[in-house]
Amino acid sequence: MYDKNYSRNRVIIRGLAENGHEVLECQSQATGFKKYGELIRQHRQLKGRYDLMMVGFPGQTVMPLAKMLCRTKIIFDAFSSHYGGYIEDRGYHRKFSLMALNYWLWDWFSVMLADVVLLDTQAHIDYFSRLLKISPARFKRIFVSSDDKVFFPQTKKQPEEKFIVYFHGTYIPLQGVEYIIEAASLLKSESDIEFRLLGKGQTFKKVQGQSEKFKTGNVKFFNPAKYEELPGYMAQADVILGIFGLTKKAGYVIPNKVYEALAMKKPVITRKSKALEELLTDRENVLLANPGDPRDLADKILELKKYKELRIKIEENGYQLFKEKLTPKKVVKGMIDELRIKN
Prior knowledge:
Order of helices and strands: HHEHEHHEHEEHEHEHEHEHEHHH
Number of domains: 2
Shape: globular
CATH architecture of the largest domain: 3-Layer(aba) Sandwich
Largest sheet: 6 strands, parallel
Number of strands: 10
Helix content: 40-55%
Oligomer: single chain
CATH topology of the largest domain: Rossmann fold
């Protein structure tokens, strides 16, 4: 049931292989109860051939089946809370509704069934521990990383006359795209700055309407692109934007796009958070803006535009950090070493 093309899963599968481990995949894209039957059939062919089972993201609803089938330790890459994502961040249902309880129970039950649970930051571990009333000792922090066979430094295909500020995402609340639009509005007088926003999602219509209201002629919207096409858009940018939302989740994750920017040797601006500071340092390998503050974001964009030496410093240091600690092989090596200690 895990998404084979999602960055987190790509990184872990590749990292395991590059560390000399054989990966046997048991995965289904079927819907409804058919997926469980398909997983059971596939598992029969793999039974007795593996030493450890890993349930990838998203995996809450498959953990009970994994526990039934598996006789070895189970590592669950929770990566994201159903309750935190669907209730607290996206607001699909009321906080004390039956659906909210349903998501909370899936989070709790799946974590309790696992021997080790992976999350991407210590701040995220602390959140899970508080939300589910479970000891943080059950969790292990594994940074997200990025597939550096897809995201790597590239020269611009063609010179740009303007200073390009780029964002891609799914327009969920934690991304705070509305604040990017407000920052663009504040920078309308800077005729040589252009914002490029790629993607669609929950808040897209609201954001598009906001852009029309503010008459932000400096903003261009692009349709969603395939994963492998994203580096082409990023290569043309002078600055990559991360997230700026005010939701709880925005404070305990480091988004994929930040890792992708580091891997591509691009300077990145994103919101301040405890999670971000576990990995990056302001003005050394990232430029941090106040969450939900378009004026501060606009000022940080102007600063990177004005001071080329700061852009170069941030992008070079960010890329060096990625090569030293954040490639798929190195991130997964840390996970393997930790698990061997626990064994």
